[in-house]
Structure formats: C-alpha cells, structure tokens
Amino acid sequence: MKRIFQIIAPADPPFTPMAFTRIPVVQRFWYGGLAAAAVGFTLGFGLWMWQHGMLPVEGNYFLIKLMHARIQIEGFVGSFLLGFALQSGPHMTGGKPPASKILLQLLAVLWTGFLLSMTPDMRLALLGNGLSSLAFAWAGYLLLKITLAGAPHLRGARGVPLAAGITLMSITPWLELDDPGYALFVLWCGPVTVALVAAQQLINNVLGGKILQGRLAILFLTSLTLSWMATAAAAFTESESWRLAGLCWLATLGLLTVGTDFGQASKRFGWKSINVTLSLGLAYAFVCAIALMLFQVDQFLDMAVHLLGAGVLTTLIIGVTARVAGFFSAGAVLPDRLVSWLVALWGVVAITRTVSPVTPMEEIWTVWISVLGGLILILWGIRTGYRLMQIQKLVPATITINQ
C-alpha cells in the first residue's frame, strides 16, 4: 500500500524557507476563506440534494440559495482573492506594498461587515453590507495606488484589471445573487477578472511563459472592457447580449493565452499541479464563454454560474493555495502529484453539478458526487489550514506590523 501511494503521489523536494521582508497577511484572509468554504459548500451540496429530492427538509429554498451564493462569492472566493491580491499584487504590478497594519485593518472591516450582513436584523445587515462594500472598495483603491506607482508596462494587462475586479466586488452585498444573471456578472467581472491577472503572474513566474505587454496588453484590456460592458448589459438590461458577452470573453481568454505563450509554457513545464490547475481553470472558462454563445441562455445561466464558481474559481483556489501556502510555510500542503489528482477529481464534481439540470441522472449520484466533493475539500482544507498556521513561526521577530 505504501509503495502504491508513493507511485500515485511521490515525495516532493524540500521547500526552501522564505525570506520575509514584511509580516504576511495572506493566511489571515485565507482562514476566513476556509471557514466560509466549510459553510458555503455544505449549503451548496445540501441545496443540490434538496433540489433532487434526496434531502427531505422544509424551509425557504430561495433564501438559503441566496445565503449560499453570498457566502461562496463574498466569503469563500472573496477572501481567497483578497488575500492573494493584497499579498502578491505589488509583485504582479511592480509596485510597493502597503504596511501590513493597513491590510489587517481592512481584513477586520471585511469580516465584521460580512458577519453583520448575515444577521436577521435589517439595520445590522445594512451596516454589514456597507462595511463589506467598503472593504472591497478600499482594497481596490490600495491596488490602484500600487499600480500607478508600479511598472508602466504591467498596468494595462495586470494592474488596472486587478484593481477594477476587486473594486467591482464592492457591489455584491447589494445584489440578489440568487439571480443567475447578477451572479454571472459578478463572477466574470470580479473574481474571474482577478483570476486572469493571477494566472498571468503564475504563467510567467512559475511556468516560464511571457509577460503580456505591448500591443497585446492594449488589446487584452480593450477586450476585457468590452466584456464587462456586454456582461453588464446582459445582466441589467433587456438587451439579451449574453451571446455577445460570451464572444468578448472568448476573445479576452484567447488574447491572454496567446500573449503569455501559455500553450508552449505548459507543454514545457509538464505534469505539475500548478500547470494542471491553470490548464483546467482556463479550459473551464473557455467552455463557459463558448457555451454562452451557443446555448439557449435561459437554460444555461445557472449552469454557467456553477461552471465559473465550482469549475474555474474553486479549481484555481485549490491548486494555487496549495502551492502558495507551501511556499510561505516552507512545507508541502500535500504531495504535488496528489494535488494534481485532487484538482482533476474536483473537475468531476464541478462538471457534474454544472450539467445536472439538463442531464438525466440517478438521484443517488448527487449524494455520491457530494461525498466525493466533500472529501476533496476536507482533505485540502485541513492540510491548507495546518500549513497556514506554520507561517507565523517563520517570520523574524525584527519585522513589525508597520512595515
């Protein structure tokens, strides 16, 4: 048995301890993301089984669906993206990071607001919504300042989209996210936009791809702007421009792939978890963009939401956090090969959930797929949480919170 496990997930080379120059904040944001994932995915799997008659409970299905959407987008995805963006954003855009003290204050505002927004008291909920909006807008402002003071050749393809995507998430507390059109707008223009910036950094720094710059960067930013406009028109007006939005996002993804030379970089890098993660995440995004162009939108919107949320974003979060947490804590979250398998298996969960509304399926399959998804998340979550707790032990005592 031990030999089989070594073949499936061989041991990785030891990590080199990181030389910290400031107090890291990424783990503080990601603790909240892990907690939100535990609640949000439990609700999600429960709603799925409830929808298929496998969970005989009573209650307001649509209210729980709205809670699930907010927890997943603001708590789970929002916390992980903010942690990554505020920790690595300066490196992605060539700017100077703000003091850790400011970022920890922002974190307190974010989670105070989110928790208050979940309360049944209307006044407290409104206050919470305002604080949540403030946190995302504040983060966007900090990232824009970093961008403007950073490398000019990185602004168009990285800095501006990063700041804009984070800022856009400030509207999420005020939208009825159980409406798939609104949720799709937020996901594409907020988290997915931020993920495309993070992907550029990883393709360049880890896989050895190119920096998206020059004319291709201008085309990328133009295409991204048109994608935002078409998606907003489709979500908030009667223009029914989802097909146009799909075309714009397809062009944006294509420009990123070509401009970073992702195909060749991925081929050279080989079967490593970060490569598998980026390949699958981008593939799901391409599928979603193409499907928006081809399928009847009324049937596909909810499917597209889950393909972006469970397929694109959760895949990227699982794979990227496993690498980043290991890098910051000088120890593997899980063996690299095992992370690759978990990311691939998660794809089975995400795709099954996506196509289930239009694909005949035995009801018991919703239970088994939910169990598989739960086991993947539990293993990843426990190990990630453990490695995050090791980070602070490596920070020199000479580094202060004001640096």
Structural commentary:
It is a single chain. The protein contains 14 helices and no strands. It has 403 residues and is mainly α. Helix 7 (180-205) packs antiparallel against helix 8 (215-236). It is globular.
Features:
single chain; mainly alpha
Nutshell version of this structure?
Helices cover 75% and strands 0% of the residues. It is built from 14 helices and no strands.
SSE order and pairing:
Blueprint: H1 2-8, H2 26-51, H3 61-93, H4 100-117, H5 122-148, H6 155-168, H7 180-205, H8 215-236, H9 242-259, H10 262-269, H11 273-294, H12 297-329, H13 336-355, H14 363-389
The chain-level mean pLDDT equals 90
Structural class: mainly alpha
Helix content: over 70%
Roughly how many Å apart are the termini? 49 Å
The major β-sheet equals: none
Radius of gyration, taken over Cα atoms and rounded to an integer in Å: 20 Å
SS strand fraction: under 5%
Shape: globular
Number of helices: 14
Elements, N to C (H/E): HHHHHHHHHHHHHH
The strand count comes to 0
* pLDDT < 50 stretches: none
